[in-house]
Amino acid sequence: MKMNINPFMAPDHKRPFIIAGPCSAETEEQVLKTAHELAPQNIDLFRAGIWKPRTRPGSFEGIGTEGLSWLRRVKEETGLKVTTEVANTQHVFEALKYGIDVVWLGARTTVNPFSVQEVADALKGVDIPVMIKNPINPDLKLWIGAIERLYKAGITQIAAIHRGFSYHGETKYRNIPRWQIPIELKRQFPNLTIIVDNSHICGRRDILLEVAQKAMDLNFDGIMTEVHPTPDDAWSDAAQQITPLQFKALVSEMVFRDPTTDDVEFLENLDHLRHEIDEIDEELLNLLGKRMQLADSIGRYKKRNNIAILQPQRWSEILEKAIIKGGLKGLSPEFMESILRAIHQESINHQAIVMNAKEIEA
Ligand code: PEP
Ligand code: MN
After folding, report:
1. Percent of the chain predicted with pLDDT > 70
2. Which of 50, 81, 158, 159 is buried most, with the most CB atoms less than 10 Å from its CB?
3. Domain enclosing residue 324, as ranges
4. What does the pLDDT read at residue 73?
């Protein structure tokens, strides 16, 4: 679908576009204190979750409508524009009633076309900027589908928020970024504003800058970061929130690139490719780690059944198949053979360690 997306929040739109504020509005005092400390930092939007989608019931599920009047006070006292997450018709109506400037769809909403459509229908005829987080699963079409539903409802100021994707393996992130996905979104919709939510990608404070910088290097338009006056006491997402002062330091340490000349454009493209390569290398490493874990399991299994490690028949089959398949992807037989030999050798080493390990007597 062809979309004519207008610049997000024109005419003030500047790069980088900065959104900050607490994960959740907890008390009037907490909301106002955060806003007053962020206002002098020239942020573009103040965020606070009023209705919180929590994984399990019993966690703090948001302060509800009462918090909207606190956001109205933020506007009155600081002049900041405010944004909150909406997930159904009632949220939309309440948010509009209280003068919320921008709304966003959370990752758990984007994943469900029924909910996205409900929000889109509730917004029909209202010209309010909308930000759409990626769905929790790495499905670019679902993300684009949500953007299209809002666009078809008449919303023309749309931004996408990249907050990472659920992942079951070991990773340093709370939600792995899979940068290729937002990069592809940007390729398909060059005018779409893309903002990185480094807080939900990281889930921790120590790598917030690294992820924000990576997004800037990839030419993202801005950041959304969770900021709380006393992060450790936060009622939701405590581990990833930072103080207004720490946020100021974070922004000051970020390097903003300005892609103007042809040369810079070239360097930037090169950067994109390199980031993608780093990402793939990390995935390759993860996969190799997983493969070796399987080798360990096989080693234990063979040991129990007293079977030799090397199964020449199986090894020849793997090698032959890989050489054919590799050829189809432009990989030379020499390369396929040498990489597979190295992997196979490492597997054998793993199995040998497992098979020769002395059982610890219980
Ligand atoms: C949030 O922004 O606090 C939030 C709930 O994020 P997400 O929808 O990305 O999980
Ligand atoms: Mn949060």
Report:
1. 96
2. 159
3. 264-356
4. 98
